[in-house]
Amino acid sequence: MSSSSLRLLVTSVLLATVSVFDVVVAGPVANGALQERHHSHEMRSALPGSWFHTEEGEVHKLFRRQNLDAGGYPAVGSPAWTAAYPSGTPDNTKLPQAWVDKLNAAVAAGTIPNIPQTTVTNGGTVYPNGVQRDSPEVCSADDFVCRSPDDVWDAPNGTVAIGFDDGPLQPSGQLYDFLAANNQKATHFYIGINILGNPDLFNRAYATMGDDIAVHTWTHPYMTSLANIDVLAQLGYTMQIIHDSTGGRLPRYWRPPYGDIDNRVRAIAKQVFNMTAIIWNHDTGDWTGASPDKIKGEIQGWLNGPKSPGLIILEHELSASCVQGFMEAYPLFAQNGWTTTSTATLVSAPGSGPWQNAANNTGPVTGAAVGGVVPAIVTTSSSAPATTTNSTAAAAATSTPKKSRADQTSRPVAMTLAALSGFAALLLL
Ligand SMILES: [Zn+2]
């Protein structure tokens, strides 16, 4: 079955599933976990009274007003917090003026290439005639046709980057249990509307576990298909909700859905928000609904191979099978002599880290003060919607022409299921 057909099948199944509201809803958080969260949050609150940013890119100026001028950050999960963000695709006529001004200034300065938008088809994206996706001017990462030196593709030799896309979602809970039990830090490439729908899971990953948070856009679109202003909105709102929910931290990294990035999208992320894209060099295919055994087998094969470069593996916290596959493979990393580190921490320069405004989650901070406090945490476990359907994952598993990503010539970037998860969240919120 072609990838186009697969997408149509999964789309149909998902829409049918959503229409009958066959949705798994996150259960309440156990008291023990709640206490642990509050305890850890107190530890995190032991930061300076004011939060600081570096002057690099002056990105902090884009995120100051709405929070601090209004008297502080709304508590995560509170009605005021929820009301502060778009419930679906952002309205590009209502963006913060500072974002728009910085984009316009970058365009005027000639730092945003004028590459035509793609058209989304059932199998991916298509550029207008005459525009070559593999040319140096375009340099699309989709299909791995062009590998920009401005993106991160590989981990250091002998290391495995631990990271997960598309959360937070209901299956994230089991994953977080496992990560915590193994004292394993990870990077979560979060979808904005999934943060909005699952604040408890966000708090757990960030405040309780101390994991790294990165941007995976607001609603998981093909970014090259969007106008500049909509690229701006997708990145800006996801940074905003992370900023507001972490006491003012700004993520340094983002991952384009489907790996769909070109020099125009790349430049907007860098010039306006000073974010770097992390792609991947191996794909488990977990997004296809592959069985845990298959995921484990893929990983075992890579671990048996050369240790240069290190592995950045595409994995998801999207379904029970994704999570199970990772958990079953996890012991193999150490058994085969690899070290594991959270992706954003692993690929950061020495002295840097996953955030733009501090060396790491708890270390000393430098630069100009912008004030702010770590936001209070509100538990919303009784109302947090989750968006993954077991039947969707099962349906995808029956039809997966999964290709290995190791040769970087196949087309595994099309994370149909991942996109649909975001779409489902959009429909349900
Ligand atoms: Zn994704």
Secondary structure layout:
Elements: H1 3-19, H2 31-45, E1 52-53, H3 65-69, H4 79-83, H5 97-108, E2 119-121, E3 124-126, E4 159-165, H6 172-181, E5 187-190, H7 192-197, H8 199-208, E6 212-215, H9 228-245, E7 253-254, H10 263-273, E8 276-277, E9 282-283, H11 292-303, E10 311-314, H12 320-335, E11 339-342, H13 343-346, E12 368-369, H14 390-397, H15 416-428
Helix pairs in contact: 1-14, 1-15, 2-8, 6-12, 9-10, 11-12
Bound molecules: zinc ion.
Zinc ion is lined by residues 165-166, 216, 220, 257, 415, 418.
Membrane topology: Lipid-anchor; GPI-anchor
Protein name: chitin deacetylase
Biased composition (Low complexity): 383-400
Determine Rg (CA atoms, Å): 20 Å
Largest sheet: 6 strands, parallel
Count of helices? 15
Strand fraction band? 5-15%
Classify the fold: give the CATH topology.
TIM Barrel
> How many β-strands, per DSSP?
12
Keywords: Carbohydrate metabolism, Cell membrane, Cell wall biogenesis/degradation, Chitin degradation, Cobalt, Glycoprotein, GPI-anchor, Hydrolase, Lipoprotein, Membrane, Polysaccharide degradation, Signal
Pfam family, one: Polysacc_deac_1
Protein name: chitin deacetylase
InterPro entries: Glyco_hydro/deAcase_b/a-brl (IPR011330), NODB_dom (IPR002509), Polysacc_deacetylase_ArnD (IPR050248)
